[in-house]
Design goal:
The structure is a single chain. The protein has about 160 residues and is an alpha/beta fold. The protein folds into two domains: about 40 residues, no CATH class; about 90 residues, 2-Layer Sandwich (Alpha-Beta Plaits), CATH 3.30.70. The chain is about 25% helix and about 25% strand. The strands form two sheets. Strands 4-3-7-5-6 form a five-stranded mixed β-sheet, with helices on one face. The chain has a two-stranded antiparallel ribbon with strand order 1-2. The chain is elongated, with a radius of gyration of 19 Å.
């Protein structure tokens, strides 16, 4: 009866008044199975936009830059064996300059992060994110120390490309 009531309420609504959005999150493992985990901070931001009458996500084209014009530090933070080396190979084959690879001190990152220090480096970070196809941009507020233009920390959501 609830479904019928909902359908009755939607009667006459045109397709132009319906908006869709993907639930922001990432794939992780639980009991050996891939599961989709909602990114709480991104969900809150999206719902704040909806509650204020805006679209769920901004439809802006992010600025990007030449992959060979900046340097990247690449760290494995998800504990996936060979992740940093595999991503280094992928990125260098696309023209990126990876200056340093390694592991983070702990493997606690569930989400891949693409970190940049200043707004001047944001287009470079966006270019890396676009090439990787996974992750979230983060502007560094002093929590991370790196000597390149962009720091990538691979999380448990990262999967090797085929």
């Amino acid at each position: 009866s609830d479904a019928l009531s909902l359908a009755e309420g939607l009667k006459g609504m045109g397709a132009d008044s319906v908006t869709g959005a993907l639930v922001p999150g990432y794939v992780t493992q639980s009991d050996g199975q891939d599961v989709y985990a909602v990114s709480n901070s991104s969900w809150s931001e999206m719902m704040d936009r909806v509650d204020s009458g805006q679209e769920p996500a901004e439809q802006t084209r992010e600025a990007t830059t030449d992959p060979g014009s900046f340097t990247i530090t690449l760290k494995n933070g998800g504990g996936i064996t060979g992740a940093a080396a595999s991503m280094e190979s992928t990125l260098t084959s696309k023209g990126f300059k990876v200056s340093e690879t390694g592991n983070t001190d702990t493997s606690v990152y569930s989400e891949t992060l693409v970190i940049y220090n200043s707004s001047d480096a944001q287009p470079a970070a966006q270019t890396v994110l676009n090439a990787m196809g996974v992750g979230r941009l983060v502007q560094n507020t002093g929590a991370y120390s790196f000597g390149t233009d962009v720091l990538v920390i691979l999380g448990k959501d990262w999967k090797p490309s085929s």
